[in-house]
Amino acid sequence: MGTDEVLATNSREATIDETLRVLADHERRYVCYYLHREGSMDVDTLARWVAATKAGSHPSADDLTATGVALRHVHLPTLADTGIVEYDREEGVARLAEDAPFVRELLAVTGVELE
Fold first, then answer.
1. Longest dimension (CA), the chain
2. What is the per-residue pLDDT for 111?
3. Per the domain annotation, does 71 fall within a domain?
4. Is residue 115 part of a domain?
5. Residue 29 and residue 106: Cα distance in Å, rounded?
6. Is residue 33 part of a domain?
7. Are 96 and 84 contacting, i.e. CB atoms less than 8 angstroms apart?
8. Are residues 41 and 93 in contact, defined by beta-carbon separation less than 8 angstroms?
9. What Pfam families has UniProt attached to this entry (predicted)?
10. What DSSP letter does each residue of 79-107 carry, written as one string?
């Protein structure tokens, strides 16, 4: 095995490690599940879905606000920085990145049922 092969392996492992670290947060996984199922979605709609999932029913106005703020300022930028989600901050729209096949496989394996 040459040095190039070792470096390529380490790079892939680093990508997998980073992806798993980012998806360890349940709200980020909810975002990915909904974007995988629905496609492109505006942040307000996504916030309603995520907040409802967290609350287990109808979220309060405070829950919706807090979830929307967290999505805009923490979760979507983090997912975008790792290449999992494409997030247009100006338009307020997100979608699962086309080149995130590992994430799609992970979502399929976990098999979470979303309402």
1. 57
2. 64
3. yes
4. no
5. 10
6. yes
7. yes
8. yes
9. DUF7344
10. HHHTTSEEEETTTTEEEE-TT-HHHHHHH
Q: What is the pLDDT along the chain (115 residues), one digit of tens a residue?
A: 555 555 555 666 677 888 889 999 989 999 999 999 999 999 999 999 999 988 888 899 999 999 999 999 999 999 999 999 999 999 999 999 998 767 888 877 776 654 4
Distance of alpha carbon 79 from alpha carbon 84, whole angstroms: 5
Residue 114, classed as helix, strand or coil, is coil
pLDDT at 115: 47
* Claim: this prediction has a pTM higher than 0.85: no
Assign residue 76 the CATH number of its domain: 1.10.10.10
- pLDDT reported for residue 11: 63
At position 74, the amino acid (one-letter code) is: V
Number of domains comprising the chain: 1
Q: Is 58 helix (H, G, I), strand (E, B) or coil?
A: coil
Which domain covers residue 33, as residue numbers? 3-110
Q: Note whether residue 27 is domain-resident.
A: yes
Q: What is the pLDDT of residue 12?
A: 64
